[in-house]
Amino acid sequence: MIVLKFGGTSVKDANALRQVFNIIGSNKEEKIVVLSACSGITDSLIILLNYAWQNQSNAMESTLEKIANHHNQVLQDLLAGRNYYEEAKHSISKLIDELNKFIEGIYFLKETTPRALDKVMSFGELLSTTIFHYYCLSQGLQSVWLDARKFMKTDSNFNSANVDFELSKTGITKYLEQEEFGKVKLAITQGFIGSDLSGRTTTLGRGGSDYSAAIIGNLTNATEIQIWTDVNGILTADPRIANNTKTIEIMEFNEVRQLAYFGAKVLHPNTLLPAIEKGIPIKVLNTFNPTNQGTTIVNYIENPKPKPHSIINIKCIRIDFPLYSYDNFTEKATEILSTISKYDFKVYYSVILPEGLSVWMDKECGYINNFTNACGKYFYELTDQVILLGITGIEFDLRISNKINELLTSYQSNILYQSPKRNLIIIESYDNENIELLNKINDWITHE
Ligand code: ASP
Ligand code: MG
Known about the structure:
Bound molecules: aspartic acid, magnesium ion
Radius of gyration: 25 Å
Low-confidence stretches: none
CATH class of the largest domain: Alpha Beta
C-alpha cells in the first residue's frame, strides 16, 4: 500500500486534477490519496472568517462567492455532462451551504475562536477531495471517500492539534475495513484535518497535509509515501542562484533536516518523522512532470558510497568575541552563548577556542533583533557579508574534502567545518565570490 499526497498547486484546478488522476490511475497498487485544499483556498477561508466576525458583510459575501465559484468551476470543467455530475454538484452545494450557515453564525456573534477557524479551514480539503472523488468515479475508477475526521484523532489544541497515534490507528483500520478498501484499493481523504475526542474539527497546523500523509503511512504500514508538488524533487542547489541544478536522486533524512535548518525551502523535516521512524521511504515528485524520478528520502542509504548531494548558500554575520584574557574561556563563552540564546537570533555555527568565541548567525535576524543591545556588554568584532556554503551528502572522505579544497584554490574561501558524521562540510565564503564558487561546486556535485 502506498500513500500519495498532492499539495495545493497539484489540485488547484481542473487541469491539475486531471494530472493527479493520470498519476494515480497509472498503477494498480493499493493507494490512499491525501489531498490539500486547492491553492489559495485555505487563505481565502481565513479571510472569510475574519470578515465575518468583523461584520464586513459585503467583503464576506464576495469572498464566500469567490470560494464557491472556484469549486463550481472546477466541478463544471471536470464533470459537466458526465456520470456523477449531479451527485457531485449536490455534495458541493451542501458543503458550501454548511460553510455559509457557519459563517453567518460568526457574523451575528461578532467573535471567533480557534475552534471556529479549524471548522472553517476544513472546508478547503473537504471540497477538493469531494470533487476529486466524484471525478474518479466518473472516469470509472472506483474509490472510497474517507472523512479524515473519523480516524485522525487529536487533542483539542485547535489550529495545531497533536495526533493520538493509537486511537488514529484503530480508527483508520476499522474505517478501511468498513469501506471495503481491500476490494476498492483506492481511498481519497483530506490532509490537514482531524477531530478531537468530542468529534470537533481540528487542524494540524498550516501546511499540515504532508504531516497527515506521513501519519497515514505510519498507521497503515505503507511501503512508500509520495509527496507530489510542483518541482522536480529536491535540487542540488537553489535554482535562483545556481545555473545547472539537478534533482538529488536519493538522500538521507538528516540531510533534509540540515537543509531546512540552513533555510532551504524543503519539506518540513518534523512532518516526515512518522514515516522516517517506521523506515518508510518518502518520494518527492512533480505532478506536472511525473516522469522525473524525483527525490527519495530515506533514514539511511544502504551500502553508502561517498557522495556530495547539495550545496546551500547561507547569508551570515560573524561575531568574534576575544577570550584570551580570561582564565576560564569556556565558562565565559558559555555565558555569552546563553545571553545570545535569550534573544531570537538564529545561530548557524559557533566555535569556542582559547583565543575566542566565534558565532555565525543569520544576517537578517541579527539586525532585526539588534545584536548591539543583546551583547553590548561584551567586547566583540562584527564582520558583515560573511557567507557560509553548506555542502551536504554522505560518507564524506578524504577524496571529497581534497576535491573541495582543490575547487577552493584561487579563492579566499576556506573549509570551516567537517562534521564527524561525515555528512556536512561548511565553507566560509565572502560576498564577492560565493556565487561563482557555489556554481563551481554545484557543477562538481551534479557530475559526481
Ligand atoms: N490547506 C492547508 C494549508 O494551506 C494544508 C496544506 O496545504 O498542507 O495550510
Ligand atoms: Mg501546502
